[in-house]
Amino acid sequence: VQHEDSDDDSDETGKDSGKKMIYYKSGAYGWNDELECVVDTEQFEIALQNAEKADGDKKLDYLLQAIHLYEGDFLQKNGNEPWIMQLSSRYKTAFLQAASQATEMLYESERYSELLNVCRHVIKLNPYEEEFYLYLLKGLIKTQQLDKAQEAYHQISELFYRQFGITPSDELTALYKEVVETSHM
Fold it and tell me: Which residues does 175 contact at the CB level (< 8 Å), separation at least 6?
């Protein structure tokens, strides 16, 4: 914090930039607007807006940028505040929509390594979204990682049964059967 009468040029980040992040003037504290500030939620929204306007690979690039910026629920530790809950829900929905579009595009363009990375990122943050398990298994099958596909299916089955008392969907089960049949050839 820099007081209006301070001559100290080192800032709170430990760098000697001559600028302070927070200043004190006339009895009040404020954010120093002269400092560049990068806000991940703004970058996330910009990437999504750019994706809406773009086509093809450029659209996919923006979607991937947004997906990688999303690291979980917005302000998790203060999540009980109504305004935070609303924003958190909006960001999560936007993230899942972007991830859904991206996984489809990656699969269609046979970019399986990136597909697997996106699926794993989504599943880590949202473990009950079956769509991404489907693409995970499809990607593992396409890259001939059949042992990992079988292992993933068993983990999914256990997770869904333990949490919801249900078995995986018919589509997921059909993929598993394809894995088993292919591995026995």
Answer: 134, 137, 138, 141, 149, 153
Cα distances (angstroms) measured from residue 137 to each of 47, 76, 183: 28, 30, 14
Q: DSSP secondary structure string, 47-90? A: HHHHHHH--HHHHHHHHHHHHHH--SSTTGGGTTSHHHHHHHHH
What is the value of pTM for the model shown? Answer: 0.78
Task: Supply the DSSP symbol for 175.
Answer: H
Q: Which residues pair with 120 in a beta bridge?
A: none
Q: Which amino acid is at 3?
A: H
pLDDT tens-digit map of 94-116: 999 999 999 999 999 999 999 99
Choose from 78-82, 160-164, 180-184 the range with maximum mean pLDDT: 160-164
Question: Are the CB atoms for 131 and 100 separated by under 8 Å?
Answer: yes
- What is each CA distance from 4 to 15, 26, 30, 49, 147, in whole angstroms? 19, 8, 11, 40, 64
